[in-house]
Design goal:
With 389 residues, the protein is an alpha/beta fold. It has 15 helices and 15 strands. It binds zinc ion (ZN). Zinc ion binds next to loops.
């Protein structure tokens, strides 16, 4: 009996030694930017978290364990990734517990993990609309057990401060800033460093200048207007992605100001194309293509023109824009998918399927678009057309 007990003991020891050996002890990388402000980097993503140090605790902004935006399907709570963040903070700041975890919006490049934080006595700072999405992928038991740790930013701002540091979180709605990718969103301002965290609301045009100018995105316009409205002129803006050209991994404010004052708006370019009469669009298509290539007009603009025309049931105009898009950028699989979709709407199924077949041959790794999506789009457009009857 005694021998059995000893053997059992040895067996248990070997199991616990084995599981101990398998335990992940790896950490993310941390870089100090200023005294009390750090960035955390992930092997699994190109996005970063920001850490603010207070006298007795830490504040974490974003958990971008994976790098996906609004197109993310199958959202999930990355428990191991969240635990790795907590482990990294513990290893680097052994005497300061993480008290707050805030995120700007629900995209995985902002919040890929929830439960490990709530289970470790960390308060989650969020918004009601974003939390509705979080509830779809985070463990409902963990959420209900920790309901008092979920802080919705009340009204339009929330301030956390002590004698060493300060964070001001601003909440705003898509209704007031229409290019916001989620129904509501949080910016985070750090007065001590005069830095503003904007995440994916600061999406810069990285391509060649368009018609000799920088392209101004709706999000850049919204961000700039927000800062002016709030009378904030930060030295630097923090985006999610790594800044390859900036030593401190932040964007100087002047870049945002410059594109807002001197840039060219995609919406304005699009309006110009949409105002071309149908006759001119059809008869001078080659000229339109030539000018678009010379001026570096992004094909996303033609793609948007296609769907604007489809919404108005202007199939022929949609087809002209889809042909222009495909001719200006034939190396974009979406060009062929869009062209196929317009033919599908026109009831030209053989032509539509032919484009799909060739798209698959040219871009076998691309699985977006296709007949199912077209059919769904068609049903959605049908509702719009019925409404506008
Ligand atoms: Zn985003």
């Amino acid at each position: 009996m005694k021998l059995v007990k000893i053997l059992l003991c040895l067996f248990c020891m070997s199991i616990s030694a084995k599981s101990f050996a398998q335990q992940d002890t790896s950490c993310n990388k941390i870089r100090k930017i200023y005294d009390g402000m750090y960035f955390m980097y992930f092997d699994s993503s190109n996005s970063k978290s920001t850490i603010i140090e207070f006298s007795d605790f830490l504040f974490l902004l974003e958990a971008p364990i994976i790098d996906l935006g609004g197109g993310a399907k199958e959202l999930k709570d990355d428990i191991a990734g969240g635990e790795k963040i907590l482990r990294t903070l513990k290893a680097n700041f052994p005497n300061k517990p993480l008290k707050y975890f805030a995120h700007s919006h629900w995209h995985p490049h902002s919040i890929s993990s929830v439960s490990p934080f709530l289970n470790n006595n960390v308060s989650l700072i969020t918004t009601e609309e974003n939390f509705k999405v979080i509830k779809t992928f985070a463990d409902s038991n963990v959420i209900s057990k920790n309901a008092e740790k979920i802080i919705f930013v009340p009204g339009d701002s929330l301030r956390i401060a002590d004698s060493f540091n300060e964070v001001i979180i601003y909440r705003f709605d898509q209704k007031n800033f229409p290019s916001t990718p989620t129904k509501d969103y949080l910016y985070c301002y750090f007065p001590k460093y005069n830095c503003m965290h904007a995440a994916c609301m600061y999406t810069k045009w990285m391509g060649e200048p368009v018609d000799g100018k920088q392209l101004l995105s709706g999000r850049e316009e919204n961000l700039y207007n927000f800062l002016k409205l709030r009378n904030i002129k930060p030295d630097f803006l923090i985006r999610l992605s790594h800044e390859k050209k900036e030593d401190n991994d932040m964007q100087p404010y002047e870049g945002l100001q410059n594109v807002n004052l001197n840039g060219i708006k995609s919406a304005d370019i699009m309006d110009k194309y949409l105002s071309i009469s149908s006759g001119v669009l059809k008869n001078t298509r080659d000229e339109i293509i030539r000018v678009a290539i010379n001026k570096n007009i992004p094909t996303s603009i033609f793609n948007s023109c296609v769907y604007t025309e489809l919404r108005k049931k202007e199939f022929e105009r949609a087809l002209d824009f889809a042909i222009i898009q495909a001719q200006v950028n034939p190396s974009d699989p979406n060009s062929w998918d869009t062209l196929g979709e317009v033919y599908y709407f026109l009831g030209e199924y053989a032509i539509a399927k032919n484009y799909l077949k060739h798209k698959k041959k040219m871009f076998p790794e691309v699985s977006t678009g296709g007949e199912e999506v077209w059919q769904k789009d068609l049903e959605n457009f049908q509702k719009v057309w019925d409404k506008n009857k």
